[in-house]
Specification:
By secondary structure, the protein is an alpha/beta fold. The protein folds into two domains: 221 residues, Glycogen Phosphorylase B (Rossmann fold, 3-Layer(aba) Sandwich), CATH 3.40.50.2000; 155 residues, Glycogen Phosphorylase B (Rossmann fold). The protein is built from 15 helices and 13 strands. Strand 9, helix 10 and strand 10 form a beta-alpha-beta unit. The two termini are 22 Å apart.
C-alpha cells in the first residue's frame, strides 16, 4: 500500500509518555509514521501552561508535522457544550481556534483518512471534515466511557460525585450513539466494546503497548535465578498507589503467612514522602523507586503483580512483563482490553484468590513455565509491534479508500 495522508487528532499532549493513554496514543503515532511510513499531520491540544520549550520537546520526541491548538478554560468549555461529557468539552477548541484549524487544514492536500484519538475528539474531526472533502473519519476508541462512569456510580458513596458520574455516563452514552452512524469506523480495544457503538462499523485494533522496533524478539524467559514479586507503576498517580496499597495490606500478609520470606519489589516514580516511609518500613517490601532501565528488574522477578482498582482504557504497563514472558497476576479490571492475552494472564479479584495465585506461581516451576510460554506467545502473535502494525495497516487501507460517510458493515 502506498503511504497515506492521515490527519491525526490527539486527545492530549503526548509528551512525556508517563501515563497509559499518552503512551498508547504516542505509540500509535510512531507506528503509523515511522514504522508504516504514512504521512501524518498531528493536531495536539495544549494547556495554558504549555511553553514553547515543551512544544519543542514534543516535536523532538514525535518527529511528525504537529500543530498545537488551545484547550479552552474548563468552566467556559462546560457552559459552551452542556451536552458533551466534561472530558470532551474541556479538550475541544472553542470557535475561534476551530476556525483557525479549519483554515489551516483547508489549505493543504486532502487527507486520505482522519483519525480521532478518542470518542471525545470526534466532534473536532467532524467540524474539520467540510474543509477536507468529507474525508473518512476513524474513531480510535480507548474505552467504553459510558460503562466506565456507570461503574463509578455504583462504587461511589458521596452523593455529589455520584450525581456527577451519572451525568457523565449519560453524556458519554449519548456521544457514543451520536457518532456511531456518522463515522467510517470505530476501532475498539476489546470485543466487548463493540456494543457501545450499536450503529457503527467496528474493527478490533489492539493497543500499541510494544514500543520496540519490528523484528525485535526478546529471548524466551528463563526461570533460573528469579525470585519474588515485582510491582511497577507511577506512584504519584492516585489509582496506582491505591492498587499497591490494596495489595500490600490485604494480599501480601496472606501470602507471607503461606510462604514466609516472600518479598515484593516496588519500582516507580513519584512516590510521596509518606508513601516512601510506609514502604520502607514494611518488612515484606523492597522499595526501589524510579529507575532508568526496567530490564534488570524484569530479569530478576518471578511474578509481576498488577492490582488495578480503577481507571479506564487499558493498563499499558502489562506490555513489559508480557513480552518478556513474566507471569502476571492481575484482576479483571487490570486485564481489560487484553482479550488475546487472557490465556497467559492469571486473573484473581479477591485478596485470598490473588494471594493463592501468586503462591502457586512462586512454588510451581511447571506452572510458571506454562504461563510464561503462553503469555509470550500470545503477546508476539497479537500485541508485538509487527502484529499490531499489520492490523493497523489493514484498517488504514480499508477505510482510507472511502470517499466519506459510513462504511457498510
Amino acid at each position: 500500500m502506498p503511504p497515506r495522508r492521515i490527519l491525526f487528532v490527539a486527545d492530549e499532549f503526548l509528551h512525556p509518555r508517563n501515563r497509559g493513554g499518552r503512551l498508547e496514543t504516542a505509540n500509535e503515532v510512531e507506528l503509523l509514521s515511522a514504522t508504516l511510513g504514512h504521512d501524518l499531520h498531528l493536531l495536539v491540544p495544549r494547556d495554558p501552561w504549555t511553553t514553547p520549550a515543551l512544544e519543542h520537546e514534543h516535536r523532538s520526541a514525535l518527529p511528525v508535522r504537529t500543530t498545537f491548538f488551545d484547550r479552552p478554560p474548563r468552566k467556559r468549555a462546560s457552559l459552551a457544550r452542556p451536552r458533551l461529557p466534561y472530558i470532551a468539552a474541556t479538550r475541544l477548541p472553542l470557535r475561534g481556534e476551530t476556525e483557525r484549524l479549519r483554515a489551516l487544514v483547508g489549505s493543504e492536500p486532502v487527507p486520505d483518512l482522519v483519525i480521532a484519538a478518542h470518542d471525545f475528539m470526534w466532534p473536532l474531526a467532524e467540524s474539520l471534515s467540510p474543509q477536507l472533502d468529507d474525508a473518512p473519519i476513524a474513531v480510535r476508541s480507548h474505552n467504553d466511557e459510558g460503562a466506565y462512569f456507570a461503574g463509578l456510580v455504583r462504587a461511589e458513596s458521596r452523593f455529589a460525585l455520584r450525581q456527577f458520574y451519572r451525568r457523565e455516563a449519560r453524556r458519554s452514552r449519548w456521544l457514543q450513539r451520536h457518532l456511531s452512524g456518522r463515522v467510517a469506523v470505530v476501532a475498539v480495544l476489546s470485543e466487548a466494546d463493540r456494543a457501545a457503538y450499536p450503529d457503527a462499523t467496528t474493527r478490533f485494533l489492539p493497543p500499541v503497548i510494544d514500543d520496540q522496533a519490528i523484528g525485535y524478539r526478546p529471548d524466551a524467559a528463563a526461570l533460573d535465578g528469579r525470585a519474588g514479586l515485582l510491582f511497577v507503576g507511577a506512584l504519584d498517580a492516585g489509582l496506582t498507589a491505591q492498587g499497591l496499597d490494596w495489595f500490600r495490606t490485604t494480599v501480601l500478609p496472606l501470602l507471607a503467612a503461606e510462604r514466609p520470606g516472600t518479598r515484593l519489589r516496588v519500582v516507580g516514580r513519584g512516590a510521596p514522602a509518606a508513601l516512601q516511609r510506609s514502604l520502607r518500613a514494611d518488612p515484606g517490601i523492597d522499595y526501589v523507586g524510579e529507575v532508568d532501565d526496567l530490564d534488570p528488574e524484569f530479569a530478576a522477578a518471578r511474578v509481576f503483580v498488577n492490582p488495578v482498582l480503577g481507571g479506564s482504557g487499558v493498563n499499558m504497563k502489562i506490555g513489559g512483563p508480557a513480552k518478556r514472558g513474566i507471569p502476571i497476576v492481575t484482576n479483571e479490571l487490570g486485564a481489560r482490553g487484553f482479550d488475546k492475552l487472557r490465556n497467559g494472564l492469571t486473573i484473581a479479584d479477591t485478596p485470598a484468590a490473588f494471594a493463592a495465585e501468586c503462591a502457586r506461581l512462586l512454588a510451581d516451576d511447571q506452572l510458571w513455565n506454562l504461563k510464561s510460554r503462553a503469555l509470550q506467545s500470545a503477546f508476539d502473535d497479537h500485541y508485538a509491534a509487527h502484529a499490531v502494525a499489520s492490523v493497523y495497516d489493514a484498517l488504514v487501507e480499508e477505510f482510507s479508500t472511502l470517499t466519506g460517510g459510513a462504511a457498510q458493515s
